[in-house]
Each structure stands twice: as structure tokens, then as C-alpha cells.
């Protein structure tokens, strides 16, 4: 194999959707034998929660589904655009923020919506569950599991996972 392929998941605060995406995807890659081939991280488009652990509701929902959701929130940086091979954002607001961060348009081809990889839903964005109830967190995990399967298939096709 060549160099490690790096993926960044981005949401607004980096305490719900993006750390959950990182945790779900990391575990699924490990189960598929892709450890050591894929590296992932998560970040937020605002720095309000920087240094905070993921929201307790997202951690609890992940745990109920067998996923470990950890890490500490951080703000997405311009340097992330060069460092990561693929940057997956959870919604169009995050897409706008990250593409605007890339003022010269140098990295546009690697910035995509996470839902581009969802196979069993017509959703185009992963909705923010922060102000909703438990059903919102469940929906997020449904989309993250589905999209992670699609992303793994894409990475296998592109030969980033053997």
C-alpha cells in the first residue's frame, strides 16, 4: 500500500455529528481490515466547543449501537485542507464554510457532503440533532452507518483499502 489516506469529518460544533462520523467510520474500517490504511479525524466550523468532549447524547446513542465516540472538539483549520485527502461535511452550511476557507479553490475536489456516500436514504444532509430529541440522534446514526458503508465501498474501489 501507498501512503495512508486521510479523511476529515466536519460539522458545526464538532460535538455531535462529526465525532460520531469519525467513531462509526473508524470502527467500520477496522472491522473491514482497513486499519493502518485509513486515518480519520473530525473538526467543527465554529470554535465555541473547542476542547469539549462529544455531547453525552451522541456518546450514549453510539454506545447503544456499539460505537465508541470520543475525542475533543477542535476548529477546522486552513492547514486541514492540505493535510486531508477527503473532507466530508455534514450539511450545506458546513460545505459553504469549508469551501470559503479554500478561497483559491485549490482543494474543492476533495470537499464533499457526507451524504454523497449514503446509499439507502434520499437525505442530502446529516441533520443537526443538538436541539432535538432522541429520534434525531437515531437518525444521525442511521445516516452515518449507511454513509460509512458507502464510503468504505468507494475507498475499496479507489484502492485506498485493500
How is this structure best described in words?
- It contains 5 helices and 4 strands, in the order E-H-E-H-H-E-H-E-H.
- 43% of the residues are buried.
- The chain has one domain (5-157): Response regulator (Rossmann fold).
- With 162 residues, it is an alpha/beta fold.
- Helix 1 (17-31) packs across helix 5 and helix 2 packs across helix 5 (134-157).
- The chain is globular and about 40 Å long.
- Strands 2-1-3-4 form a 4-stranded parallel β-sheet, with helices on both faces.
- Helix 4 (92-101) links the parallel strand 3 and strand 4.
Q: Strand sequence of the main sheet, in spatial order? A: 2-1-3-4
Q: Identify the CATH homologous superfamily.
A: Response regulator
Shape assignment: globular
Give helix % range: 25-40%
Largest beta sheet, briefly?
A: 4 strands, parallel
Kindly provide the radius of gyration, computed on alpha-carbon positions and rounded to a whole number of angstroms. 15 Å
User: Which architecture per CATH?
Assistant: 3-Layer(aba) Sandwich
The amount of beta strand, in percent, is 5-15%
- Give the mean pLDDT: 96
Number of strands: 4
Number of helices: 5
CATH class label = Alpha Beta
Oligomer: single chain
**Structural classification:** alpha/beta
The ordered string of helix (H) and strand (E) elements is: EHEHHEHEH
- Number of individual domains: 1
